[in-house]
Amino acid sequence: MIAALPMYDRPETAAANDRFWALIRDRLRHAGLAAPDRLTRDRDELALWQDPALLFSQTCGLPFRARLSDRVTLVGTPDYGLPGCAPGMYRSAIVARADAGALTEPARRRWAVNSLLSQSGWAAALAHVGPISAPLVTGSHAASARAVAEGHADLAAIDAQTWRMIERFDGALAARLTVIDWTAPTPGLPFITAAGRDPAPIAPAVAGAIAGLAPGDRAILDLRALVPVPKAAYMSLPVP
Predict the structure, then answer these.
(1) pLDDT digit string (tens) for 112-151?
(2) What whole-number distance in Å separates Cα of residue 191 and Cα of residue 212?
(3) Between 79 and which of 32, 87, 165, 166 could a Cys-Cys bridge form, CB atoms 3.0 to 4.6 Å apart?
(4) What is the CATH number of domain 92-184?
(5) Which residue ranges make up each domain of the chain?
(6) CB 61 within 8 A of CB 53
(7) Per 3-state DSSP, what percentage of the chain is helix, strand, and coil (rounded to 5)?
(8) What's this model's pTM, rounded to 2 decimal places?
(9) What tens digit of pLDDT does each residue of 68-126 get?
(10) Topology of domain 2-81+188-235, per CATH?
């Protein structure tokens, strides 16, 4: 069995994610389900999400609808209490260098993109400004933010929760950037399990774990609740 929380895992949140998983794990075991002791952190994400041994993970909306919809089962969507978003929704901050001045015709600017299989970094940007030519693919939102700050790109769309963590943990980087706009909200990053696995006992374990977070861990992870966003809400969005 495999469990992973790769999407918002960074050195400052890793210990809190471990404790969050421990709460989920213990609730699953209490319900009679086998669950791994620890989170997996050394697997390729796309391969991990498609592994039949997957018990629990978090993915992104674009790979969910483009690659995984028939290979995983939706468990629920976490709510991070993001400003401007209904529960279970998120959006992207469009960032530019703080000293860049007015940027006209954003679609014609050089964009840094974490991945071409990212809802927040790619699909949301396309929906917001239209076709974007020759993006700089960086591999992560943090790398996209650095690329803009260092002048390798003009703009980047950064997942709102990731941007919140950059402001919290990478203040020097955040100070070199400014948010010039926000994309439209879309369903947040879903929790999933392997195809064919019953999500019914998993969802209450996750909801109970979120409710049971210690105040310090809740402040680090920003988790508020588990929201039953329907699969159709993800599948209704276009695939770039």
Answers:
(1) 999 999 999 999 999 999 999 999 999 999 999 999 999 9
(2) 18
(3) 87
(4) 3.40.190.10
(5) 2-81+188-235, 92-184
(6) no
(7) 40, 20, 40
(8) 0.95
(9) 999 999 999 999 999 999 999 999 999 999 998 888 899 899 999 999 999 999 999 99
(10) D-Maltodextrin-Binding Protein; domain 2 (3.40.190)
